[in-house]
Backbone:
């Protein structure tokens, strides 16, 4: 499975934000962009998708109404509002890594659930094919050519049934 590349957008006016972005990028293995104001953050979100959008609560308090617009534009990104200055780089990195780990776990579980759902649906269809082909094969009034095709169809369906059974074992 291909490793997902995670990205973080940090909206902050804090001094040293680029240094924090560099440390976060190295320590959490993510790409990081810094937006210094609301307009640039919204512009970046129009162009790119992010895994996490982090808004410095010091900046969020300056324009509380802008948060709603920002979260709407963030699409599937995890929205996060934190006081970056109080939190510090180490705790911020732990927070980001924790969020990314949870997101990865949710992704794996969602794929597994989707796979099980598809598998169950396929099983149901294969069972239907087997039953219908058995019913048709029990008919006396079918030609030998049609009978042979039905036998082939039943063998294919049975092969699928066996593969589905082994896949779930």
Residues:
């Amino acid at each position: 499975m291909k490793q997902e590349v995670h990205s973080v957008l940090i909206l902050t006016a804090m001094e040293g934000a680029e240094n924090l972005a560099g440390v976060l990028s190295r320590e959490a293995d993510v790409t990081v962009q810094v937006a210094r104001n609301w307009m640039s953050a919204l512009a970046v979100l129009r162009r790119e998708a992010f895994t996490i959008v982090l808004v410095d609560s010091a900046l969020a308090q300056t324009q509380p109404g802008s948060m709603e617009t920002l979260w709407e534009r963030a699409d599937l990104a995890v929205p996060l509002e934190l006081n970056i200055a109080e939190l510090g780089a180490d705790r911020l990195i732990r927070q980001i890594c924790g969020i990314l780990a949870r997101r990865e776990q949710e992704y794996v579980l969602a794929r597994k659930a989707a796979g099980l759902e598809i598998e169950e649906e396929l099983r149901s269809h294969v069972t239907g094919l087997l039953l219908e082909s058995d019913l048709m094969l029990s008919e006396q009034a079918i030609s030998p050519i049609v009978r042979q095709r039905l036998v082939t169809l039943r063998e294919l369906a049975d092969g699928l049934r066996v593969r589905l059974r082994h896949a779930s074992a």
